[in-house]
Amino acid sequence: MDLTKFNTTKNRFDIINGEEAKLIDNINDSLMWGAMQHLRMAGFKWVEVPTLTKITGACENVDTLYHVNHFGQEAYLAQTGQLYLEAKIPLHEKLWTIIVSSRAEDRPDSRHLNQFQLIELEHKGALKDILMNIEGTVKAMIKQALLEHKDALESLGRLDELKRWVKEPFARITYTQAVELLKGTEHEIEWGDDLSSAQEQYLVKKKGNKPLFISHFPKAIKFFNMKGNLKDDKVVNSADLIMPYSGESTGAAERENDYEKLVERLKQSNMFRMLSKRGKTVEDFRDYLEMVRKNPILHSGCGIGFSRISQSVLGTSDIRTTTNYPIQCDVLY
Amino acid sequence: MDLTKFNTTKNRFDIINGEEAKLIDNINDSLMWGAMQHLRMAGFKWVEVPTLTKITGACENVDTLYHVNHFGQEAYLAQTGQLYLEAKIPLHEKLWTIIVSSRAEDRPDSRHLNQFQLIELEHKGALKDILMNIEGTVKAMIKQALLEHKDALESLGRLDELKRWVKEPFARITYTQAVELLKGTEHEIEWGDDLSSAQEQYLVKKKGNKPLFISHFPKAIKFFNMKGNLKDDKVVNSADLIMPYSGESTGAAERENDYEKLVERLKQSNMFRMLSKRGKTVEDFRDYLEMVRKNPILHSGCGIGFSRISQSVLGTSDIRTTTNYPIQCDVLY
Fold this sequence. Notes:
2 copies of one chain form a homodimer.
Chain A: H1 12-15, H2 19-41, E1 45-46, E2 52-53, E3 67-70, E4 73-77, H3 82-86, E5 94-102, E6 115-124, H4 127-148, H5 150-155, H6 159-167, E7 171-174, H7 175-182, H8 197-206, E8 212-215, E9 238-243, E10 247-254, H9 259-268, H10 270-277, H11 286-294, E11 299-305, H12 306-314
Parallel strand pairs in A: 1-5, 7-8
Antiparallel strand pairs in A: 2-4, 3-4, 5-6, 6-11, 8-9, 9-10, 10-11
Helix pairs in contact in A: 2-4, 2-12, 4-6, 9-11
């Protein structure tokens, strides 16, 4: 079956009731149920987080925030519920939530949606624990799709590859190893640069054409509360999950639980520099910082971008194939 | 256990990690899982709907829309995904989704949140079918809480009542019967008036102190696409589920599937009168109307307000007890 007619936001109401749409809906339903069921069985508690927030609902790139007037207060559409989940860590071992993450990206392309379902996990424990839980969750999603829609996946030519992904362990390299692997190729980068999606896909191919964790990124290019590595001060205990076809699908990290370091990191972060220009101060993060000061518990978490997983399972080149109503800057429904 | 300290939005970060918060989180986790599990087992497919929308994301009261600038286009935070779920009815028997419903209410009170989790169902079939599915879903939610948190519910004094609610059928009356029941009491209303929450709770008490469906409301006070009753032209095939303590928790209806009638109803609706003043026309509903014209399939649906169910299970007088981060006009997190 050919899904290329979904590689656009145009004329959506003409195509969302065809056979291709049914296949996509069915796969998504299985993927979502696979995640929900797995997280419950693994002991994660669902909690609600706010999605109309103060600045603490932002990811690194605060330029892509949607602004909302909340009765005279400046509010934003949340990009992540991470800090609100973290604020509940003193009370629970493992938490999850699902939000619509909003990113006001002004370039409509095949890789980014302005809104997407984000499954967020947070639990007590270290990076290795959250990576195990991400791998478990993504595999549970794919297994559910294989279980319920084998024929559909076969019609897309996806069966053999997906079976292999759930059987084999996901590949793992560090960011520093990634830089080494790219050396001497057309994708060469300098240590400290962020990875482009072309570079990510090159690495995926090099490491077995399956989901790939890249860990221990340079501190400077990552979110302020990612915990620094004790052996190598330049990197943080973080990892991105790179999926074949769709690229970065999950960002994960240990959270800095040393209050003094956390405040220092916040002040030095790129995000904070951008926020300072808009009049924001450390006070805007006070509730979160206080929680860490009072409860310096080692914890880790992640956000799994549902559409990136879906795209990878479908094996398409365009993220707009993954949802009936893909929101980009030039369209609304 | 006493939950009254949650009857406010003040100082939330001081109370969300106490024992009372743990109890509330646990109950909510069970309620949510009860719903997710039940809907999957009952054959409902999860699909994603947009929550940053055109005017077709609005409920009746368009004055309570949050406005968002979407790259020069006027967008709104969705109040319901109903029309987007309905647009998928030609393809599927039964659909569900969960969204954050946004209502820009400017009065902070004990009954309304500006954002809340809304579980939406839509399926082929009539009003009686959707009522059966609502009752099944709400009972599954409560059963899951009883199964997993019996002691906690006992500590709130909720055990006996909740056991009775899941055992007995929900009560059912028509709107016209409700008007009769209120006659001669301090709650008396005229036929055609909407019911206040005090009137709803009076009716709940009269009908056995358990969840109560009130059906067949006057056409004039309900959403434009609720299907008219064939025997009585003045009412629509709709029902609200009134829960003890929290009130209206679910709105449900058959959807008008006669294209001509639907367009007529839209034009005559209060909502449309309000929208006309803002320059909106029938064209803004074109995609939805075309779907009905091409696929005049009888279908029905509902939206279950999660926090209203939670409040009723907890047995509290204040909806702010049901969530860690209750959003109202005077607060953000």
